[in-house]
Amino acid sequence: MARRPGTRGTRWTRRTGRTGQGRAASPVGALLRLLPRASLPLTAALTALALLDAALAPALMLSVGVLAGRLPGIGAGLGTAAGHGVLTAFAVLCGVYVAGLLAEPAIEVTAGRLGRRVTACTARLVMRGSLRPAGIAALEDPSVADRLTLAQGQGTGMLPVARAVTALPALVSARAAGATSAVLLIGFHWWAPLPLIAAWTVSGIWRDREVRRAVDVQAGSTTELRRAEYLRAVALDGGAAKEIRVFGLSPWLVDRFTRAWLAGVGRVGGNRRGAAVRDVVAGVLLVAAHAAVLVPLAVESGHGEVGVARTTVYLQAVVGTAALGWLGDLQWTLARASAVVPPALEVAALPERDTVVSGALPAAGLPASGIRFEKTAFRYPGGRRPVFDGLDLWLPAGGSLAVVGANGAGKTTLVKLLARLHDPTGGRVTVDGTDLRDLDVSAWRHQLAVVFQDFVRYELPARDNVGFGAVRAPRDDEALARCAHLAGLDPAVAALAHGWDTPLSRRFTDGTDLSGGQWQRLALARALYAVEHGARVLVLDEPTAHLDVRAEAELYERFLDLTRGLTTVLISHRFATVRLADRICYVEGGRVVEQGAHDELIAQDGRYARAFALQSAAYAGGTHA
Questions:
Q1: What's the domain count of the chain?
Q2: Where residue 591 sits, what CATH number does that domain have?
């Protein structure tokens, strides 16, 4: 038996790094864990370079101090021992400086390469996470849509994750330099670094919290920002250009985009009064801390208690401790760019939330007797009422069944249950008496050829658009041609500039677009291609709405004739089409209220008969679309 979905909270927490209270893991911490996953050699190289760069900062301070202490010896002449000491100190200083110059481009190149790897790794995580779930319940969850938006950094004011990788070594070097500066100050007085460390740490923590709050507010405003991103995409999409201009939507789009965007990002500027007070307090603390160190240093230097070399080193060290505090654009960049990583890891763990768990039984050759919905109930997550409540339906193998009903009756949901995009919340669906959940879900879907009402128009070559019906099958040009002919698509293919290899989008060179009717015929050809390669259940969910009544009826009649022997499910709001099926069922209130052949249902004079009469009258009067 198939394993039923259970509670997976613990594993979800471990994989995503979210705490039990729902707090997201530290973005920087998540990024650090992702680096070796993207490329261990580059991560090791970047770490070594960052540590080298960090060591150069104190080395530069010390070499400057040593040179400053030996400079008076230059008066004795370069040929003297004192002069040689000056030259040696100067050579060391130059060597350290040149090493820093060489380390910088090496770090930049390595960080750039690692950043590209991390970008690709993050993209793979998001793609695999969104594609691997067998069901689509999680992807239909608005909260998951928000995480997907954040994971892609779209419309949120975030930066590309590669920028975070570039900022990391600079941050490490700066922090190490600050820590070394504090250590050097111990040579002046043991207490000297303490006030500076305290002041810079407090100011840095306050500012870091402010930045985290801003990033968190942006993340919490994803719904508004996602809406703004959608409006922007509509404005820039060539497909919407005609309606935007005909209906004069330009001002409306700009206004709504501005409102949505400001609603999303406007929260970031909130509560600035408290932040301003903290900034003032931090400034006072820093002034006091510097005074506590610099005043004694000035006094002791003036009295000759601290020499020139040591004074030079200590002054540099005082300035260097600033690296222990807020690092401005560096930390801001790191916070905004690394914020992409936690939601990417959450999306990567989506398969663990999947409620559709594959069984293990083979599905080849099914169905042999038929498919049955037994007391099937289904409610969408968060839905107020069930779509189905005790649905009973029998689909005999090799027969054709038409499903009709009012809008919202659940006709498309029935297709989703049949394809195991969702599982019933009650009852079950069986194939030849076996619970659909016990079948291998991938193997079962190989038995299906589905054309959804909102089928996808892939902006790819025509060959791929049809070939996706059996993507694992080897290239078969003869089958493509047969399916195009049966679907009435061959005239459109013949008119393409590069035939089957023409991209079906005007956004590509030599690409073109198809009419609505041609796209529908292409979707039908895709389903036929699946049938050519072994699919035994054909589902047509109103894919021909762009065709006129006569063309649709003729196409379906030919389809039913060509696919005779297949188990066919036909969904359409046009009764001239559904009457061609062997059996018709009328769905209402979550149940099948009428079923039978067309003539039988007309004779019953029930819901189907009345709906058929109304539509026939509309067609006769010429009021249909």
A1: 3
A2: 3.40.50.300
In a domain, 36, yes or no: yes
Distance CA 464, CA 505 (A): 13
Residue 71 one-letter amino acid:
L
Give the contacts of 437 (CB within 8 A, at least 6 positions apart): 2, 4, 357, 359, 420, 423, 428
Evaluate whether 372 touches 430 at the Cβ level (below 8 Å).
yes
Q: Token pair for residue 602?
A: 């007309």
pLDDT tens-digit map of 512-567: 999 988 998 999 999 999 999 999 999 998 876 666 777 777 777 777 787 888 99
Same domain, 580 and 441: yes
Rounded Cα distance, 155 and 226, in Å? 6
Residue type, 50: A
Question: Other C-beta atoms within 10 Å of 604: how many?
Answer: 12
Tokens representing residue 113 in the block: 């390469």
Nearest to 17 by CA among 391, 239, 456, 338: 338
- Three-class HEC string of 199-243: HHHHHHHHHHHHHHHHHHHHHHCHHHHHHHHHHHHHHHCHHHHHH
Q: Whole domain around residue 580: which residue ranges?
A: 357-447+536-625
Q: Could you give the CA distance from residue 434 to residue 418 in angstroms, rounded to a whole number? A: 13
Instruction: List the one residue out of 522, 459, 512, 465 whose CA is nearest residue 489.
Output: 522
202: in domain? yes
Chain segment 468-480, per-residue pLDDT in tens: 999 989 989 999 9
Do 139 and 243 belong to one domain?
A: yes
Looking at residue 285, which CATH number applies to its domain?
A: 1.20.1560.10
Q: Higher model confidence: residue 355 or residue 498?
A: 498
With a CB cutoff of 8 Å and minimum separation 6, the contacts of 61 are 180, 181, 184, 313, 316, 317, 320
Residue 323 has pLDDT above 90, yes or no: no
- Answer yes or no: do 237 and 376 share one domain: no
Q: Last residue of a domain, which of 352, 386, 405?
A: 352
Query: Would you say residue 79 lies in a domain?
Result: yes
Main-chain dihedrals φ then ψ at residue 329, nearest 5 degrees: -60, -30
Q: Is residue 112 part of a domain?
A: yes
Do residue 160 and residue 289 come from a single domain? yes
Burial of 21 (0-12, 13-18, 19+ CB in 10 A): exposed
Residue 550 shares a structural domain with residue 622 = yes
Q: What is the average pLDDT across 485-502?
A: 93
Q: Structure pTM?
A: 0.74
